[in-house]
Amino acid sequence: MNDAAPADAAKPSRNALRPLRTLWPYLRRYPRLIAGWLGFLALSSTSVLVLPVAVRLMVDRGFSHAHGGAIDEWFVLLLVVAVVLALATAGRFLCVSLLGERVVADLRRDLYAHLLRLDMAFFERTRTGELISRLSADTELLRTVVASSMSIALRSAITVLGAAIMLVVTSPRLAGTAAIGIPLVVLPIVVFGRRVRGMSRASQDRTADANARAGETLNAMHTVQSYARETFESGRYAGAVEDAYRAARRRVRTQAILTASVIVLVFGAVVGVLWLGAHDVIDGRMSAGTLMQFVFYAVFGAGAVGSLSEVWAEVQRAGGGMGRINDLLDETPTITAPSTPTTLPAASVGNTPALAFEHVRFHYPARPDIPALEDFSLDVRRGETVALVGPSGAGKSTVFQLLLRFHDPDAGNVRMDGIDLRQLAPQALRERIALVPQDPVIFGADALDNIRYGRLDASEDAVVAAARSAEAHEFLAALPQGYRSFLGEKGTRLSGGQQQRLAIARAVLKDAPILLLDEATSALDAQSERAIQQAFERLRAGRTTLVIAHRLATVLRADRIVVLDHGRIVAQGSHEQLVAQGGLYAELARLQFAA
What we know:
Largest sheet: 6 strands, mixed
CATH superfamily of the largest domain: ABC transporter type 1, transmembrane domain
Number of domains: 3
Structural class: alpha/beta
Strand content: 5-15%
CATH class of the largest domain: Mainly Alpha
CATH architecture of the largest domain: Up-down Bundle
Number of helices: 21
CATH topology of the largest domain: ABC transporter transmembrane region fold
Shape: elongated
C-alpha cells in the first residue's frame, strides 16, 4: 500500500473531483435534506441578489426630496430582505450540516465493515495507524466538504452567476469593463490549483505516516518503556510530525498565494470599475443608487470568487482524501465465500477425518521464496488430540492459519469433514472452531463482555460456568465489580496468566467441535497450568483438538504428536515412540527434560 503512494499521488492531478463521485450514492440516500438545502440555498441566494436592488431604491427614492416620506418604507424593505436572508441561511446550514454528518457516518460505517471483511494478507502489509487515519482524518475532511465547502461552493457559484447577470442589467458598459479582468482571476486559480492538489495528497500521506507511527508505539508501550526508548520514539515521532508539517506548510503557502492573488486581482478590478462609475455619476450618466447597486453586485461577485478559490483548495484536498478511501474500498479480499457455499453437516458420520491436509504447499505472500508448508499431509480423526511440535518457523502456526482459512494453500487441499474449506463460507467455518492464541486479545470492556465474545447470546450463568471451567472465576469474582469490572485496554488490569485463562473461558463458552490451542498454557504458573490441563481434559471429550506446544511437558497426554521441520512432517507418534526413534523430537526432549 505504501509502495503505491507515489503513483497514486498523481491521480488527483488529472482529475481532483473524480474520487468525490463516490459520495453520490451516500448523498442520494437523503433526498429530503438535499431538497431542504437546495431550497434554502435558492432563497438565500435570491435574497442576496435582491439586496442591492433594495439599496438602489432606497438611495434613489428614499433620499430624494420627491419621495422623502417613503424612506421608512425602503428601510423596512431592507430589514425584511435581511430577515429572509438570515432565516434562509440558518435553514441551509442546518440541512447541509446534517447531510454532512449523516454521509460521513455512513461512509465510516461502510469503510469499517469493509475493512473487517478483508483477508489477513491485507493486514499483514498495511499499518493499523494508516487505516485509523483513513477512518478519522480523511473522513473528517469529507465531512467538512459536504457540510460546509460544498454548500459554500454552490452558493458562491450561484452568487457569481447572478451577480454577473445583474451587473450587465445594471450597467452594460461597466460590466464589459469588469469582464476584462476575469482571465486575470481565473489564471492563478488554474495554475496554483494544480499544485495544491498534489501537495494536498502529499500532506495527507505524511499525516497518515505520523498517525501510524504513534499508533504502533502506543500499542507497544510495555516494550518501549522496558527498553527505555522513550526519547528514541519521541524523536521518531517528532521527525514524522515535522515531515507532515513541512508538507502542510508547502500546501498552505501555495494556497495562501492563490488566495491573495485572487483577492488582489478581484478587488483591484472592482476599484477600477468603481472609479469609472464615479465619473459617470458626476457626469450625470448614472444615478448614485445605480452605482451603489453595481458596486454591491461587484463586491458580492468578487467575494464569491474569493470564496470559490479557498473552497476549491478544500475540495481538492477532499478529493485526495476520498481517493485514499476509495483505494481501501477497492481492495477485494482473496478469501471469499463461494456463490453457493456448502453446508457443513450438523454431526459427522462415517470414517471421514474431521480435519485433513492433502499434500499442501503454502508460501506467505510476504515471503514468496520460503515455503511455510511443503507437501504437508495430515489426517486428524474425530475426537483426537494431536500436538504439533517443532522449532520456530517449522510451520505449526501456518497449520492454524490455513484451518481458519486466513489463507488458502498454493497447492493441495484442506478439508473439514471431507469438505474442501474453499467450498465453505469463511464465517460458517470459523463458527466450528474455537481458538486460544498464545497472545490472548483482551478488549477494552468488562470481563463479562470479554468472555461473551465467544458466544454473544450467552447468559451470565453460562459465562460464569465457562470461567469456572477455565479456572478464571476466582480472580474475576474478586475484582471490585466482579464480572462487570473494566479490564483496561488490552487487559492491563490482569496478569498474563489471568489473561490467558480469560481467553480459555471465551473458547469454552463458544463450545465449538474443534479446538485450536496455540501454546495455551504458556503464561501460567505451575499450579494454574495443572488446573488448566485438567480443564482441557474435560474440554477435549468429544472434540477434535490441535495443540501447538513448545513445552513438550504439556502434550505428553496427546493421542498423537506430529513433529514438523521446515514445513514438513518428519515424525509422528506417541512421546515414547518418538523418543525411541531418535531424531528431532528426541533432541528436543533431551534438551527440555535433561534439567
